Amino acid sequence: MRRKDIVVNVSNTETRIAVLEDNSLVELYLERSEQTSLVGHIYKAKVLNVISGLKAAFVDIGIDKNGCLPLNEIPFEEFSDLFESEIELEHEQRPSEIKLKPNQEIFVQVTKDAYGIKGPRVTSFLSIPGRYVVLLINAKNVGISRKIRQRREREMLFRIGKQIRREGMGLIIRTAAARAKSEELKREVTFLKQEWQKNLDKVQKQTAPVLIYQEPNTLIKAVRDIFNYEIRNLIIDSDTEYKEIISYLGKTSPRMRSRVKLYTDPRPIFQKYDIEEQLKNILERKVWLPSGGYIVIDQTEALVAIDVNTGKSSKEKHAERLALSTNLEALREIARQLRLRDIGGLVVVDLIDLERKENIHRMLREFKSLIRDDRARYRIGGISEFGLLAFTRERSRTSVTHALSEPCAVCKGRGRTISRSSAIGYIERWFTNNGKTIKGKMVELQTSPRLADFISLYHADTLAMIAKEYSLILRIKGDYAITDGDFKVMVV
Q: Which overall architecture, per CATH, does domain 42-213 show?
């Protein structure tokens, strides 16, 4: 059994939550005031328009970007109310299409944060999570966490769920409930229902858009969602947040309070647990494997491409065995990187080609086993004849990579910049087009210091020819404010 810990670093600007498995960093959560997640928030929204081709409605929830509501994310009971036709629908019938009225008010919950140019994704299936259960506001089913695998345990929790659920509402029994008492589950269901009703009463007479329910901060969400009996310790370096966690657990899981430790050592907590060192590589494209192989991770808006290479690996001399061992090692690292970077959407892995089918099946089994600890949902498409493993991973929030970085000011996110040789060509063409207008004047060519050195060393004769052709007094100056590949021509 792996040893799991949660380490929390709190500063004035951000809160960082690291999940460790055998001292290896596998998950990272960040909270900054300018990057607050809206996932889980419930709004009374206003319908703006419906795009029939997308089978979705756009709704105003009171933020800069409108929410996207797929029409199949509206519960059956609300379908009949929102459907314009007067025809009565049978209990199990769902209309083939739905028409929402502009300015109509509807309850929605954010399921995915805004990403790139896309606004947040929302649903009308509302739920409020607790530590042990998720209260389904407008559903009647009882579900059990897929991580509770023992049949007897699932059957027992299902019976308890049926007994404690409220009329007209459903429940999802969470993983943490496996070691909880039925009284604790019942108490939490009552508390969640009261909280929902209290929030609902507050906004009853307010017009949309208005916030109804707000998820707690990232730290309390992490305690609620991932601080279970598998976690050995939660260590935090802030006395204020330590007391906040103890207070929360006192209401929900008093027995877990002894596992929360206040860190008082003068050495920074992320250095003490070697997390800072592991974070250095979180933005790297190339990730080295212990054997000498490596993977390359490239993220685009639509998909993530991961390439597997043997690199300097020399453990195996036989080609098939080398490919298999590198692939298996790469899949282990890929499973970790998916969780660590919180990569979502379509992922395509270019594995090293294998000839034996049993080895291909083994890789697929291994990968399915590796992602069991991941809380995100997967859909695995298998390994194609070209050695491509394609799958999707659930995306609910901005990836850690995007939270920690921003597009490069030089390359604008392309990952490459104009070469110095190409820049020389641009400069030469500029003088060809504009040289006559500045003929006989003193001119200063301003570039980045790196490009200025390159021109002085290898293309001084090019500048001399330009100066002679247009009778210019031409000098070059390096300016750190100018990016590589760019330049300015100033008449002095």
A: Beta Barrel (2.40)
